[in-house]
């Protein structure tokens, strides 16, 4: 017995010692002194109670060297994943399971575009943003060389290579891809058009409907130089394996002083991004002579995309404009190395790329390009199944080098609304809604992107004829005609991924817009009073209510004979009286989403098949089409094409309800009062290594149940499914509220925490706060910051 005890004790000591050794070798260093060889003078970094670094330096270069160092210390592995996605080198580190993902991004052209942007960057003359970016890279590489690498590198037996400007351009390209909704949607819409016909498409909302809410434009007066004059008043399944989250949507609104209690501008932003650990944004506050900025940074990006000074604030949402088209090419029957074009032919360009694979021989991969772009049949399975003709991707982003670094540098330093617009113009893709407020009382919204002028006959969501020059874009809309609103009479600007109103030239620009449920709630709420405060506006940012869902539910209930729900009358009555809220104790959403799934499945799976039905419920098309589908009784989708009978909406809806009630009875019990929403909602923030058990128990971050919903202001969506367990997959990547009456009292919260290092105290310290609707300060007050317990001095 004594021997056994001694052995057990020795094992415990050994395990404990091993853990302490690994922790010592991998944990971040937030205190004391560290040498950075690239520094020209000393810099101080104060870490506040939530791990946000507050950097004080003598000049811009040293500030960004320090920024690169602390950013890498907390987020290096996230930076690694981002750059590997953008450079098409995931398989080199994670193995051959990611080979098809690398092929996809290489075919799409992101690594090629990054190399082009880097070539242009290298040839450009000196600039402030170039020097600051290079300083940031020096700081990242100083950490790679001398810092404690996170444990993920040990587990993967990998040593990171130095960071480069090409990596930053690749990360920018990946960020642009995550906005590209066309790849998910256009193949499905084209299939419906070809195989089902116009009646089926007409029953959906492929394009914006009159009942959808649009963002009003308010174009400013401009001088002769166009300056603003201010009045002094499957693919889906493959992407599921990505080790980094997709950017999906967002809310932002800015309220002018005439609607706030303080009389100053009130600014709110919550970007919607796929949940992951670490979360997407990294907060950092930078101070050096002439500059003070609190920003939210993407991994590997030196400048904050969202942030504020004491004089202005910048926020973002997705524009959702259509900036990608697919051209179906015709091969010359006598020469498959060229395509038919007009009365002649155009050669296909071919390039070969070599993809390194961990533990395997490198794979050589051939990419063909037509005059419209790369041929994507082999890397987008939905297209490969739809046609044997080559299909080319025409994408605005890869048509010119990115200037994102210059744009974000200038946006943070804008001294006026005109300077901000000048910086915004530099963003050609992805399409972004840039939100703005300032101390002078201005509020503004710009939809920034290069918008192609398409021929009137073109439906940009259906594959075009690559042999027909008449389908080609005709040019570009001038930036001044882009959607925008500058100091509108309404006293607010807002964007929620919904359709902007017609442009100044009368164009209703196509896109992948959401129906505007969130925008409508924001607009109605904001205009209901004129005394908003930073505290009172939080109730809107945290609201989990959708006004459309109860209307859908009533439309379904009206189709059902009461005998169908005998014994479950209380459940139907609760759903009938539902106001659209998603409170944790509510039972109505539990029945609604289950019933909605089975109704849509009964309507559509016979036409689409299992795989494309799964794809449908993961696109904007599903969100936008549900009201029209559910409330129309004469839609061709109701009929089951696999039977001789002609099914009605009543039959499909009743059968779906029977199935839903039976499943909920089995899943949650016979008492409908026990069908609480919180029992079927799951929120877990997945780490890239968490896909392998038991590493999920170590790296993933679990959170309490949240008010999961579709298209409420506090959007916390999930994939509709038959199982009735709803895993929240995205949501606000931060929640910012700020009143310009007291910028130093601004607040935010992150979904998990500041650090991606497992051994950091700030790995998941905000997870419960986020789930329960709490906020914490974004400090800019020097005395409050310098009273922090943790201070890291960086010396040359």
Strand order in space, largest sheet: 1-34-2-3-8-9-10-11-20-21-25
Mean pLDDT across all amino acids: 93
| Proportion of residues in β-strands | 15-25%
- The CATH homologous superfamily of one domain is named Penicillin Amidohydrolase, domain 1
Largest sheet: 11 strands, mixed
CATH architectural name of one domain? Orthogonal Bundle
Percent of residues in helices: 25-40%
Structural category: alpha+beta
CA distance, first residue to last residue = 58 Å
Number of helical elements: 24
- Unreliable runs: none
- What is the CATH topology classification name of one domain? Penicillin Amidohydrolase, domain 1
CATH class of one domain: Mainly Alpha
How many beta-strand elements?
34
Rg over C-alpha atoms, rounded to the nearest angstrom: 27 Å
Shape: globular
Organism: Mariniradius saccharolyticus AK6
Family: Belongs to the peptidase S45 family.
Protein name: Penicillin amidase family protein
GO molecular function: hydrolase activity, acting on carbon-nitrogen (but not peptide) bonds, in linear amides; metal ion binding
